[in-house]
Amino acid sequence: MPFRFPVKFEIPKHVYVNARVLRDQFKRLQFAEHEVTRNALRYIARNEELPSRVRVEAQLQLTSVGIRGSVSGIGILPSRTLRLIPDWSKFKKIEQPPGYIVDTVNDAYKPPLPNSYEGAYHWTYERIIAITMIPLVMTPFVAGVEFPVIDASLSALLIFHCHSGFKSCIIDYIPKRVYGVWYEIASKALTFGTLVAMYGVYVMETTSNGLFDIVKSIWSA
């Protein structure tokens, strides 16, 4: 007589073996094997912090558990299907909690990770650049001395000064916690513009007399 179950399993000992005992033992083993997957799907379906689409997919998979206790079809993470309509959800504003209060008063404060290019360091860099630009601006116009090194240094520091100012505007008016991907787009666009401006300074210093000569010609026009 051929084996009627799709997989072989251990037959319980010291019991009277019949069709009902084999069927119950097979169901117990299958249920225990997929218990972790079932609990994971149940957790995803009940988690209100997850997107509704993910919760619905988890609930559908949870209800599709067959008679053998296994999830029919795919696993916990469904395979991506081809969509002709683009997903615009990442371009929307991120919903903020009431009063911008995250967690509760009983939760410990989680300070952001230190960054050498933002925060207090960013403010310090701005002040250093602004102070360094003062003698560079005064030297050619007050002392009447023009050097290509001074002109190039002032042009580069002026670009970095503008970069820091626009970066502060992006941080204040396009915060990452609210606008998400738009913050990344604005930051990358600013970086690209800064690189193009640096190339413009290189062209200006190599093909003409630099920034001082341009300002002088405009002033005397």
TrEMBL record:
| Entry protein name | Succinate dehydrogenase [ubiquinone] cytochrome b small subunit
Quote one Gene Ontology molecular function term. metal ion binding
Q: How is this protein positioned relative to the membrane?
A: Multi-pass membrane protein
Q: Single GO cellular component annotation?
A: membrane protein complex
Binding sites annotated in the UniProt record for a ubiquinone: Y173
For binding heme b, which residues are annotated in this chain's numbering? H161
What does the UniProt keyword field contain? Iron, Membrane, Metal-binding, Mitochondrion, Mitochondrion inner membrane, Transit peptide, Transmembrane, Transmembrane helix, Transport
What highest taxon heads this organism's lineage? Eukaryota
Q: Where in the cell is it found?
A: Mitochondrion inner membrane
Q: Which organism is it from?
A: Candida oxycetoniae
Q: Does the keyword tRNA processing apply?
A: no
InterPro entries, per this entry? CybS, SQR/QFR_C/D
